[in-house]
Amino acid sequence: MTATIIDGKIIAADLRARVADEVARVKREHHLTPGLAVVLVGHDPASEVYVRTKAKQTESAGMASFEHKLPAETSLNDLLSVIAALNSDPAVHGILVQLPLPKGLDSQKVIDAIDPAKDVDGLNPVNAGRLATGLPALTPCTPLGCIILAKTVYASLEGLNAVIIGRSNLVGRPLVQLLLNENATVTIAHSRTRDLANVCRQADLLLAAVGKPEMVKADWIKPGATVIDVGINRISSADGKGRLVGDVDFQGALNVAGAITPVPGGVGQMTVACLLGNTLRAACAIRGIVEPKV
Ligand code: GUN
Questions:
Q1: Distance CA 5, CA 195 (A)
Q2: Which residue, of 24, 84, 175, 240, is most buried by count of CB atoms within 10 Å of its CB?
Q3: Would you write out the chain's pLDDT as a tens digit for each of its 294 residues?
């Protein structure tokens, strides 16, 4: 058996196009230009690439993009002042502080300071709590992307055995809530889980978000299962440039899974597309316009 490859590039491009159409409509009908502010502290090379991609795609979707690049030695107070200014800026509807922050800056204090209405990362405890209690919320982008990708395989996720590996606030924990909302049966596994391979083998839908290169082996996968690989890990390669791999042994998994996301070209593509969707949603909610279905 060779698994179907779930093409995140195409699915993300389709979502970006739908967001751009809705942005054009709210501009035309409501004179509203959604705006996203991204704050980058320091010079982490991977973060700089992500931030550039976010700015480019925000502008391509017809939205306003505001970049705030701050030196690595920025104090917590100065960073909180930038957040406060963005919270009260009417042109800004979404605020994203790129993580991880340089050592010494308490990211929770920064996330707590973001106005929940502009928290397009869905990381503020208000949004996390709303999601956990089944209330409408701004929802973290990577988990949202995982759900969209899974739904390209299954018309409905209802009743599926879903196993998530990883319990981060950014991915694993919000994924539990989103999968519960879809009526899946959810197991969340982590570094202390006993017999992880056997837990994974029960999954119709296996989602790996641990950050360990190729940790999930072919014999951890139930034949025919759908595998969503959230990991983006750079490993060394013969040419010295390094290459990106996921948390799943992709070549091995191809022989067992029914469908699988590649790395790169899978979940990563969806994160920014969902961020654009969240910015549009936040802008409409702030202005009291009926939220678009994108
Ligand atoms: N760093 C890696 N992924 C993310 C994300 O989704 N949001 C933020 N703010 N930082 C990240």
A1: 28
A2: 175
A3: 799 999 999 999 999 999 999 999 999 999 999 999 999 999 999 999 999 999 999 999 999 999 999 999 999 999 999 999 999 999 999 999 999 999 999 999 999 999 999 999 999 999 999 999 999 999 999 999 999 999 999 999 999 999 999 999 999 999 999 999 999 999 999 999 999 999 999 999 999 999 999 999 999 999 999 999 999 999 999 998 899 999 999 999 999 999 999 999 999 999 999 999 999 999 999 999 988 888
Catalytic residue numbers, as ranges:
54, 98, 121
Q: Strand, coil or helix: what is 221?
A: coil
Domain extent, residue 50, equals 31-115
Residue 189 lies in a domain: yes
CATH number of domain containing 204? 3.40.50.720
Q: Are residues 86 and 171 in the same domain?
A: no
Q: What is the dihedral of CA 88, 52, 54, 67, to 10 degrees?
A: 10
Check pocket membership of 99 for ligand 1, CB cut-off 6 A.
Answer: yes
